[in-house]
Design brief:
single chain; alpha+beta; Thrombin, subunit H; 2 domains; 5-stranded antiparallel β-sheet; 2 helices; 5 strands
């Protein structure tokens, strides 16, 4: 399994095993130890899971990725979802990308 994203609430990973939504999994988090999470979604070989308890990710010793790297990875994943016909996933990724951009809504006159 390869962890793609990690936050205090959960993680996103990819693996060859077919992990079912609702399954309880355990992730060995560096600096924290084994942490239980529940799979909330799965698409192909990727899945997302929410931790049972909020983690203090500052204890992991992992440095956060720059925002540009995260956005770049989401753009690639969105393109893969679109070309693979996973339009629901593509729409969700587009929403996440737009929400993470430093934009402010300007009121219309």
């Amino acid at each position: 399994m390869r962890v793609l994203d990690l936050s205090s609430n959960g993680f996103r990973a990819e693996c060859e095993a077919r992990v079912l939504v609702g399954t309880c999994v355990t992730l060995e988090v560096p600096g924290i130890g084994p942490s239980q999470a529940y799979v909330t979604w799965r698409r192909g070989n990727r899945f997302g899971a929410k931790f049972s308890t909020t983690l203090d990710v500052s204890q992991t010793g992992c440095a956060p990725l720059p925002r540009e790297a995260v956005l770049g990875r989401m753009l690639v994943e969105r393109a893969e979802a679109r070309s693979g016909g996973q339009f629901g996933h593509e729409i969700e990724l587009r929403r996440q990308i737009l929400n993470s951009l430093p934009m402010v809504r300007v009121p219309k006159d």
